[in-house]
UniProtKB/TrEMBL annotation:
InterPro entries: WH-like_DNA-bd_sf, WH_DNA-bd_sf. This is Helix-turn-helix domain-containing protein.
Length: 93
């Protein structure tokens, strides 16, 4: 199930947003690490990672410590999402 280019982080299910935040706070993790940190099921994490990869905010890389696993990390465009949130929370009128 591929995401469209117009789909953004706000359009994703809560589980995908949680996986995004886990990667934002902890840095690159394996799927098993994301499952442990988020306390979501492995199936839910897989689906969330697919959705995040579909909109281009998560990259999948080889985990050299164990080549059977992949390492997931936020992409450079994902930093725009986190920068937008911090700017929005800093402004108060």
């Amino acid at each position: 199930m591929e995401g469209t280019q117009t789909e953004g982080l706000d359009d994703l299910p809560p589980s995908a947003k949680l996986v995004f935040k886990v990667l934002e706070y902890n840095g690159p993790l394996t799927q098993k690490g994301i499952v442990q940190e988020s306390m979501l099921s492995a199936r839910t994490v897989r689906y969330a990672l697919e959705r995040l990869e579909g909109i281009g905010v998560v990259d999948e890389d080889v985990y050299f410590a164990d080549a059977r696993q992949n390492l997931y990390k936020l992409t450079e465009p994902a930093q725009e999402f986190t920068a937008d949130e911090s700017e929005a929370s800093c402004t108060a009128d």
